[in-house]
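Methods — Computational structure assignment.
A single polypeptide chain was analysed. Its primary sequence is given first, followed by the predicted tertiary structure written as structure tokens.
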Amino acid sequence: MSDHVLFGVDGWGELATMADAADPKEWHILTDSVVEALCLPVLLEKVPRLRSVERTAIQSGEGNKTLITAEHVMARLLQQGMSRQGTLVCLGGGMITDLGGFIASVYKRGVRHINIPTTLMAQTDAALGGKTAINIGQVKNSVGTFHWPKLTVIDRIFLHTLPDSEVSSGMAEVIKHAIIADAGLFSLLEKCGRAMPDEAILSASARVKMRIVAADPMESGLRKALNFGHTVGHAIEGFCSLSADGRLSHGAAVAAGMRVESALALAQGLITRNDLNRILSLIDVWSDDEPKLSVADVPHLLALMANDKKNIGSRINFSLPDGIGSVLTDRWATPDEVRIALSTLMKP
């Protein structure tokens, strides 16, 4: 159980070989309405065989990563007559690769899927590692499975279709990987400033994710390291989804989560003040959007954190940096400790 990830020409070549040998009636492309216009032409140019494959384009947006959408797509697969030997091609960002992987894992008790991530977030995190998920209400990724894609194709060409806000969102995961497991990548990011990541940065970030997943494919231990920033981040993302100010991107929520959880790490003596300042400074380089929170919102955020799937009993579980380039899992914090750390995000 591990990722088979290929970049650029190598990835397209292997995908074309697979598609040429397959019955097109057993393949289906899942994408969304935005990606269909911007990225589907690239896929069909790189792999002409897929022009004859059925496809479904759902509405874009995290709010569509639901059981209702999954049922709609699976009904399309049944109507097409896809068997258990079928293949679902997931072209899009993290919403599509999460949803598509989930569908592939449960349709006919499991069919193959191929990820073609089109966002920076998906290329360095969401499309890697075999996790699939859908959202239930405000609780993000609360239902899911482990289901490894047959192949993941990563190509920087798709990054040029992204608005700056999407690049900034994706950089949150790249920064996370550097903080938890690659001090050299962290220093490289500090030197590069706000420049579009090149293949060296993409591959370094992806290697962190794949190395951790290979060591702990079912998230029984080390893989929990990848949750840094997400315990608080998912709560903020869920809370903001129903606020008057509207949704916050996943990357912006994770960036905010890393701020809070780094403050927790400082409070627990795991990092120095200098480490914290470097982390916050790098996050600042890529922060275009921040949550608008007040002290009155803290009880709601704590309630959402209490539902996090990583918790045991009433204790809120965190993965916290232990210096830059290292991380500790299963760190506990009391509601009061979390409340103090959250104060770093509060607006006067």
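Note: The longest helix spans residues 164-181.
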